[in-house]
């Protein structure tokens, strides 16, 4: 009897970084962000926003399942923009079934 195990593998757009250009103070801006599941099993994901960014950054959908070889497109929204460029790093947990 033999068994094999596979690890979860994903590809992140833009090396896992989201860059928001400078906009007017008090406005909102958004960026689309792609995640691809390149493993052979479904993956459950959940975005986490750092404490200092909560209230400024939202991600929709924040949770979900990515099937094998499927892309998930999330919208990252920066509310109440500041007068300088803003980086957000893709921080999320992946749970395999």
Task: Write a structural description.
The protein has 97 residues and is mainly beta. 0% of the residues lie in helices and 47% in strands. The protein has strands at 10-12, 17-20, 29-37, 43-47, 57-60, 63-66, 71-78, 86-89, 92-96. The strands form 3 sheets. The chain has a 4-stranded antiparallel β-sheet with strand order 1-3-7-5, with no helix packed on it. It has a 3-stranded antiparallel β-sheet with strand order 6-4-9, with no helix packed on it. It has a two-stranded antiparallel sheet with strand order 2-8. The protein is elongated and about 65 Å long.
List the helices and strands and how they pair.
Layout: E1 10-12, E2 17-20, E3 29-37, E4 43-47, E5 57-60, E6 63-66, E7 71-78, E8 86-89, E9 92-96
Antiparallel strand pairs: 1-3, 2-8, 3-7, 4-6, 4-9, 5-7
Q: Kindly state the mean pLDDT as a whole number?
A: 76
| Helix proportion | under 10%
Q: Main sheet: which strands, in order across?
A: 1-3-7-5
Number of helices: 0
3D shape = elongated
| Derived structural class | mainly beta
User: What is the radius of gyration computed over CA atoms, rounded to a whole number of angstroms?
Assistant: 16 Å
Q: Secondary-structure element sequence? A: EEEEEEEEE
Uncertain runs: none
* CA-CA gap between termini: 23 Å
Largest sheet: 4 strands, antiparallel
Q: How many strands? A: 9
- Strand fraction: over 45%
């Amino acid at each position: 009897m033999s068994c094999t195990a596979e690890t979860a593998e994903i590809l992140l757009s833009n090396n896992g970084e989201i860059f928001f250009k400078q906009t007017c103070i008090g406005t909102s801006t958004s960026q689309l962000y792609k995640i691809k599941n390149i493993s052979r099993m479904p993956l459950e994901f959940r975005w986490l926003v750092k404490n200092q960014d909560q209230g400024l950054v939202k991600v929709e959908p924040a949770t979900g399942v990515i099937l094998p070889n499927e892309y998930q497109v999330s919208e990252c929204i920066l509310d109440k923009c500041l007068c300088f460029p803003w980086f957000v790093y893709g921080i999320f947990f992946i749970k395999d079934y």
